[in-house]
Amino acid sequence: MHIEFHGAAGEVTGSCHLIEVAGRRILLDCGLIQGGPKDVARNRDAFPFDVKSIDAVILSHAHIDHSGRLPLLVRAGYAGPVHTHRATKDLCRIMLKDSAYLAEKDAEGENRRRGRKGLPPVEPLYTMGDAAEAMRRFRGVGYDEKTRILPGVHMRLRDAGHILGSAIVELWLTESGVERKIVFSGDLGQAGTAILRDPTPVREADLVILESTYGDRLHRSRDDTWREIATVIGNARAANGNILIPAFAIGRTQELLYHFARHYRDWGLANWRVFLDSPMAIEATAVYLRHSELYDADAAALWRQNGGRLLLPNLSLSHTARQSMELNRIGSGAIIIAGSGMCDGGRIRHHLKHNIWRGNCHVLIVGYQAEGTLGRALVDGARFIRLWGETIRVAASIHTVGGLSAHADQAGLTGWYGRFEGKPPVVLVHGEQAAMGALNGRLKAMGATVSNARRGERLNLN
What domain range includes position 127? Predict the structure, then answer.
């Protein structure tokens, strides 16, 4: 009985952990590696285990750094089920299709360049057909349902409060009469996050696998964050400029729309045109609206008040590329929410090209920016950026709004762990080295036995 760490070990993306018990093998997550070109290139590497020997996959949530290599896993020969929450299944149908579409487009563009140089073509990382085949493996379950998924293996998903359908995974493993309970946090959300319920406390575990994305910091209060956003909106209006918001299609976009609806009058949003320029975010918002049974009390009340709609009266949805391009003609008065959230692809890059050199433009960074991404460069104060071979001056005001993180901070992580009885041992995953180190020290001060996962490491569970 053991666990091996094959992703999000000493880094944030690429979540992937392999458990073996009684001759059965279970994969926790199978995520895409994100970041700079060298990181992204690792997605093409062969899996460091025999794919055909995997009996089951458990997916904590839909974000692509947890789900994005599932089409590759299936293409490599995986034929078993993918157990996840029903809402995660609905969101992955959108996320994996979009990821495959982007992979095909990237390969198409690269092959045009290679063709001009007389080089052989490359294949996309995976295709939309691969994504569709992966979705056939999904099996949706609800929260709080203890289920036998394999002989000697029982699973229960609890609400992680990170995005819709995100799950803490409880696993009961039995081998030769010995039972061990493993709890995988997945990605834990902040208490008080709009729309979602707070992360569910868990009492018992023999081992906790805990994310550490923000293990080295405390988030500013959400109230302060919303006041800052209100100020940015007011200043941008006075400067007669546009506001660009690179936002993750799932979670962050819906939270922004929710608060725009709540503060429509006091933020003066009637004076703006608000555009959601992301087909994936538009589809994801529809999934959020279909799963109102997962809302917290405040969101449920607003949903009922608005007749099942959380959208703004002046919100325009940009479905097509033509509609997106038309936004580049707007010189002022537009709030444009577009993907990708780290500015490493998608429509936001076109809007940055047309706006970021303007002194009256404001860019709101509202999510985590991995090392090596364009979003991280903007957060770090880049004065120039490169887009499609062109160097562009950054004259816009860049606002990093950290209080909206979908991840718990150090206090949230330690507070969640503190609800366990008996201080079970902890392995930290899903964090950069500084964050893991800081959280490691804080948990040890609480009396826990803590280690930081290393890629390829095997931990005996007996």
Answer: 2-217+406-460
